[in-house]
Amino acid sequence: MQANEKEIISTLKYVSHMKHELRLSEIKAYLTNDMSVDQIYDIVKPFLYELDLDVIAEGADFRIKHAPPAVIMKLNKEELKKNEFFFKSAVISPKLQTIIEQYISKKTGKKWDDPVVLDRIRKAVVYQKNRYWKEGTSRRISYEKGYNVLGYLAYQFPVYFVQFQHIFYNMIQAGILKTRMKILDVGTGPGTVPLAIADFCRRVEDLKVGIYCVELYDENIEAFSYIVPQYIPDSVKLQEPIKSDLLKLEPDILPENIDLMVFSNVLNEVHGISIEQKADIVMKLAQRLASDGSILLIEPADRRNSVEMRKLSIALKEAGLWIYAPCSFIWGSGCSLKECWSFEQKQDINPPLLMRKLAECGESYRYINTDIKYSYSILRKDGLSKECYRVPSKAKFARFSKMGMHKDKRINVVCSLMSGDLGDEKYSLYKVCDGTSRKAIYAVLPRHNVTENNSLIKRANYGEILELHNVLVNYNKDKDSYNLLLTKGSTVKWACNEKGS
């Protein structure tokens, strides 16, 4: 920051502390250099959100006033209705699709749907998918080439874009996000998370967000700089991406009191470091987290990445953070399962035009990506948990750690629902957890056994806590796991007297 810029910012801070409201022209009298109001505005604009100041253009001047204090964000009935409608048939808006198509044309010098361009994007998609599934040191995912970014925009982006909005919506409904927030997106790529937030903000009022991003690759930053500013509404204040390697990122260059810190599908791509080293990276950046802020980890739902993310969550818990969701330690003890494969599943998205164009070939299945499955963890400093339930001291529930003692017997258990339906047309299958198990445990509900008393498990949400009464314990030798068979005599209830209590 140059000397005159420092002077202007310092003056703005001073005058705004003295007055609740001012016009930007008023600070001209305090400056040593003669500057126009527009020149002053260009300098202060990036700092207004950080200073908790709102700006309103008034003719040739700008009115500056203190922003209202942030409160817990609550959606009204109309906003809830808009969001539920969006998620029922989620799709990228026509405006955003057009911006992405225009970027492809600008980047390639050809029409976005030119056969040559589409064929090269297909090759980039196949290449990325092959690299993704490689093991060990040979697994290296990068975005150093332009067509790698275009392949991401065509194939991964639509799902990740909607996926983040699901999580963001649920966090607002849970009451852990505010009406005014600073959000840091680490490894932003071409701007997936900022674009998702911008899209969400178009369906709500009274939500203002300052977004700060970190990205390593120049090709991603170029796409970000073209696409994101064109889609951001006035309620979102966007800062230019910080170019940095995640391994070398220093907290001092980040804003203080961040309300939401996002690592979306990025930590799994950092190769060659251990779970403990990844935890050290997150903990270092967590220095800039507000005392009531949240850290959101999101990874793909495949077994390897899901298990690794869950291990990272436990490592962060041991390092001093608290897991807010989806894990709940209902027996008051730490998790002991060595390999936890758990993920959330939502309704498929509608494929955008670009994806459909890619699929107009002999192997269309390679280029359609519409299912939303993801693993996530929300961590905090303040010890807050989404589910506060603890098993009463005299309750007659069997711990999952003692399941071997109950083989072929009927028991009662209390557990978190940790998956959607993993079964088929004959059996519903759900991963369940009580935080004590050393082996994977599943609740099984055959279609012919569904009753009014046990069907709640089919309606319950990921992470919610249920009581399962009169279930039969079966050991699955092939999978080295246990199945809790729900029969017609079984009952499923909320663990609390009332849901959410």
Descriptive notes:
By secondary structure, the chain is an alpha/beta fold. It has three domains: 3-66, Arc Repressor Mutant, subunit A, CATH 1.10.10; 78-301 and 344-369, 3-Layer(aba) Sandwich (Rossmann fold); 400-494, Nucleic acid-binding proteins (OB fold (Dihydrolipoamide Acetyltransferase, E2P), Beta Barrel). It is 31% helix and 22% strand. It has 13 helices and 18 strands. It has helices at residues 3-18, 37-44, 77-88, 94-108, 115-132, 146-155, 157-173, 192-201, 218-231, 275-285, 303-318, 353-358, 456-459; strands at 21-23, 53-58, 61-66, 180-186, 208-215, 236-238, 242-243, 258-264, 289-300, 322-325, 344-346, 372-380, 410-417, 427-433, 441-446, 465-476, 481-485, 491-494. Strands 4, 5, 6, 7, 8, 9, 10, 11 and 12 form a nine-stranded mixed β-sheet that branches. Strand 4, helix 8 (192-201) and strand 5 form a beta-alpha-beta unit. The longest helix has 18 residues, at 115-132. It is globular, with a radius of gyration of 25 Å.
